[in-house]
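quick one
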Amino acid sequence: MKATFYGHACVGLQLSGADLLFDPFISPNKLAAQIDIDQLDPGYILLSHGHEDHLADLFDIQKNSKATVICNADIGYWLNKRGIKEVHGMNIGGAYNFDFGRVKMVTALHSSSLPDGSYGGNPGGFVISADDKKIYFAGDTALTYDMKLLADENLDCAFLPIGDNFTMGVDDAIRAADFINCKNIIGIHYNTFPPIQINEREAMDKFAAAGLNLRLLAIGESMEL
Ligand code: NI
Ligand code: MN
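structure w/ manganese (II) ion:
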């Protein structure tokens, strides 16, 4: 299983059964200028919530790839009305066995309006079980006690927001790693905009001091999970 970071909260997961793409926000992100969205051909796009900095490139990438969009049911209807028929709607607490593995939609404490002001349902995160691994993609979220529900899941790694201001910052993400009982954390949702700039050295040191492994991938960089 391979993960590729496309900047902000956009992550590709290459599984044996499918390529997944989370929260496509690439072309408006100047830091990700070297990523060509036309080269992305996921089988599934997973959308944590409706904010622009998570779905900006969804329409273009979906049009090219015909990927199935996995998202909450409210956003699913909105996408249907805009011509995307390949949608698998879910909601918090529900899981479904796809051809590549199992996806469970879990709580995220955030908001979720769509770019045109439409209701975007509740924000969520995803737990992906595939290829004998279990991965948590938290989406945009505050630290929440609900994360403790994942403590017994034996997560192999977790993508957690660390940029603060709109989501958890570094200190709360360290507490989240404790709540979910997972030592391998990959940071997302930082540095893209001025309010979420972080000191990467300081973040690395704080995670290390807590006995955790924080990976901050360069945009375009991949790692084996
Ligand atoms: Ni958001
Ligand atoms: Mn966001």
